[in-house]
Amino acid sequence: MTSAEEESRREFRTFVVPVILLALVLSTIPYLLGFLQSHGRHYMWLGYNLDDACVYLSWMRQAMHGSLQQHNLFTTDSQPAMLANPLFYTLGVIAGLTHLQPITMFHVSRLVFGAIMLYTGWRLICELLDDRAARRWAMLLLCFGAGFGWIPGLWPSAGGSIFSTPVDTWQPEAITFLSLYLSPLFTFSMWLQIAVMLQLVRSHRQQSMRCAVFAGIGGAVIGLSHTYDIVGIAFTWLAYLAVCTFRNRQAVAGDILRATVAGVITLPGVAVIAWELHTNKVFHDRAAVATLSASPVWVLMGYGLLFILALIPVISVAKSNNHSSNLDDSATQTKPGNQSTDSVLFLVCWATMQIAVAYLPVAFQRKMLQGEHIPIAILAGAGAAWLFGQMTRSTPQFRAVCQTVLLVVCALTNVRFLLRDVKDASADQVQTGQQRPYLTNGELQAIQWIKKNTPATAAIQPLPWVRLITTPSGAEKIAPTDMSDACFLPGMTDRHVYCGHWGETPDYGGKLARIVRFALPTTTDAQRIAMLRRMRVQYIVFTQKDPGDTSAPQLAPMFCGLIPVPAYLQRVYGNARADVYRVNLSP
């Protein structure tokens, strides 16, 4: 083993591994604090973006039976089966074989793929940056860096629009640490993004068809599991090859061939999703739900100091007449064959294209911002190393203080994000405003009864909690305040619900308004029966039974024992906090 290899291994053991472990531990602390605040309730081990996590749990629950088919359990609309998401199918099968709960597999896989993602990120950093300090800073900023969202005036206000705040305060896939914190789908797909980019870079530098094949295989898996990411990868690599062709003033036939091979291998995964999008109306409607990008100003603010630091190597390359070497203070001459300029140009192409595709005229714009943080963090690492390399006259202690301050400031939004989630959990709420991170024991018992005592084909509808609110105009209206049970039930029972998720349920707003009216004393039996036929559910669940709730007796008197329950609803299970009713409609 050469001295360089030994040094690399030592750096991995003494720096990279501790940094990755620290990121994993920090990303888990809010969940542990949430559990400690249970106080007799059942903690669901979810917080921010809770509703989306419930979708993934429903996919895992279906896969526990071993079927490759997958349905949208958040609607009773007719739908053909889809090919299961490969990630959650695998996790579901493992959960079934090991008898682990889906939520356990959710967090285990979040951490496992998070570690793999960050390790692969380190390999990409080593491929692109030669300077040791630059590599270390890039790793730190990849793991912990965020933007200006921590600044009080830029933090989302209660009732305000998140679209007028930096993306690091509300869009997890825009920041690597927040992706690690929240979802195995993010850590898995970001790992594949990084791995594909790494293989493409190696295929170019080593002129390796083998690396291009590996990139294609990774792309095919992305196509099946998180298809949006293929768009950014494709645009990035095409832009980079165009830049290489322009710089070298010669054709890059080998690169085009290898890129074509990678694309052809990727294509089947994308084609499967495209076909299902075309043939499955429920899936098509889900994809058409608008998730639009924030203004570019708020995107750049979401990267804050990282974006500013990233400009340093970009400006350095732009000013250089020759191909720049490393950005450290000891490298002033261009080294033959040095790749640092190519590295910067590749990262610039990646950062530019990833933002650009997030503004394509499609409904799912902002989902394609995932991965933007990676090239910005790597460029920022090179910029930070150069910046501190200029402080040759300062003492080591002063430089250490400045470096610590920079890292803390770059990480502040992530810290505030975690603290907000811990505070929300203590108030039994999440950012959606429609779900709770805790269920009462009565709710849990009712869901367990449904799982054990209803047919696998049964459709269930937990009714939303409702109350009277006063609008800004002074008028009163009935509004839903909680949809927790409808959101959790598919992933806990493998049963369909009529309305349970803002994006997965087609016409969510219309269906929610319908079930809000179901229990009102002003709703007639004829109207309720018509609703039930339209809903196509066999069971209704009522859980708004908190003794301190004054809205339920007024707005749902028949479920509070104040007026008789109609004969077409038969109470088959009940406890102090939940009741289950079987729907009995005449043919």
Describe this structure in words.
With 587 residues, the protein is an alpha+beta fold. The chain folds into two domains: 3-426, no CATH class; 438-583, Rossmann fold. Helix content is 58%, strand content 7%. The protein has 21 helices and eleven strands. The chain has helices spanning 3-36, 50-63, 86-98, 102-128, 132-144, 176-182, 184-205, 209-225, 228-248, 253-279, 281-287, 296-301, 304-319, 340-357, 373-389, 396-426, 441-453, 484-493, 508-517, 525-535, 551-555; strands at 42-43, 69-70, 82-83, 438-439, 459-462, 465-470, 476-482, 496-497, 539-542, 569-574, 579-583. Strands 8-5-9-11-10 form a five-stranded mixed sheet. α5 (132-144) crosses α15 (373-389), α10 packs across α11 (281-287) and α17 (441-453) crosses α18 (484-493). The longest helix is centred in the N-terminal third of the chain and has 34 residues, at 3-36. It starts with a helix and ends with a strand.
